[in-house]
Amino acid sequence: MTTDTKITLITGGSRGLGRNTAVHLAGKGIDSVLTYQSNREAAEAAVREVEAAGGKAVALQLDTSDVPAFAAFVEKLIATLKDNWGRETLHFLVNNAGIGLHKPFAETSEAEFDALMNVHVKGVYFLTQALLPVIEDGGRIVNLSSGLARFHLPGSSAYGTMKGAVETMTRYMARELGSRGIAVNVVAPGAIETDFNGGMVRDNAEMNKMVASMTAMGRAGLPDDIGGAISSLLAGENGWMTGQRIEVSGGMFL
Predict the structure, then answer these.
(1) Rounded to an integer, what distance in angstroms lies between the CA atom of residue 9 and that of residue 230?
(2) What's residue 81's pLDDT?
(3) pLDDT at 203 over 90
(4) Is 155 left (phi over 0), alpha (psi -120 to 50) or beta?
(5) Which active-site residues does the annotation give?
(6) CB-side exposure of 9: number of CA atoms within 13 Å?
């Protein structure tokens, strides 16, 4: 029997902002398929957290830098949707999976640059492309960027460059998928207290204090700030908004 419950695919959903987004969506009656790269235990813990919030979630392994594996992943996703929800399509996609790099421009290697490119640009581009037959007409896509695509801090040149590409890509997606009624927007978090980049903002008191001093709201961001924003884009009455960059940074560097 096909369920009417809306379903979101969240890449990198086993931790951080992706996991938080899934929990927020569960509170709005939206279920999730979460991808993880290697930490199965974290993914299972995320599934339990979603269930505790009143939702349903399933975790699937996916390396978002491995473009040739996307076709097989889509087949597995369709089977998972059929087994768990009695359908072969989903409503929302959140391209959240990412890796960080904090290194000066003069010292960043080609291999490091390529690793970021494969996850943040090629991965987002070609995974979304592969998922197009699975996303419902009238669906919504949220890509993750960063405040670092607008303001510029030493050590973030490669990462910020990738996120600038994601923002341009988002506008092209919005333009070309609009005929299907699919809204595509990009959320750009500021500095958030997660384990990203080794927990640099969360665990380094001096860094956290510095971020707070540059932010209009007077503090670093929390995962709930971003999960709440993404879930409101997907579950709220925002279907007419597309191709937009929404920065959720508490007003960094205003």
Answers:
(1) 13
(2) 98
(3) no
(4) left
(5) 159
(6) 32
Question: CB 178: neighbour CB atoms within 10 A?
Answer: 13
Question: For residue 145, which of 129, 122, 167 has the smallest C-alpha distance?
Answer: 167
Gap between the Cα atoms of 244 and 170, Å rounded:
8
Residue type present at position 64:
T
Q: Measure Cα distances from 98 to 74, 92, 124, 225 in Å.
A: 19, 18, 10, 18
Q: Which residue has the higher pLDDT, 237 or 180?
A: 180
Q: All domains of the chain, ordered by start, with CATH?
A: 7-246 (3.40.50.720)
Report how far residue 3's alpha carbon sits from residue 7's, in angstroms, rounded to the nearest whole number: 10
Q: Which residues contact 136 (CB under 8 A, 6 or more apart)?
A: 89, 90, 91
Structural contact between residues 21 and 50, judged by C-beta atoms closer than 8 angstroms: no
3-state secondary structure the chain: CCCCCCEEEECCCCCHHHHHHHHHHHHCCCEEEEEECCCHHHHHHHHHHHHHCCCCEEEEECCCCCHHHHHHHHHHHHHHHHHHHCCCCEEEEEECCCCCCCCCHHHCCHHHHHHHHHHHHHHHHHHHHHHCCCEEEEEEEEEECCHHHCCCCCCCHHHHHHHHHHHHHHHHHHHHHHHHCCEEEEEEECCECCCHHHHHHHHCHHHHHHHHHCECCCCCECHHHHHHHHHHHHHCCCCCCCCCEEEECCCECC
pTM, to two decimals: 0.94
Checking if the pLDDT of 236 tops 90, the result is no
3-state secondary structure 179-228: HHCCEEEEEEECCECCCHHHHHHHHCHHHHHHHHHCECCCCCECHHHHHH
The pLDDT, as a whole number, for residue 128 is 98
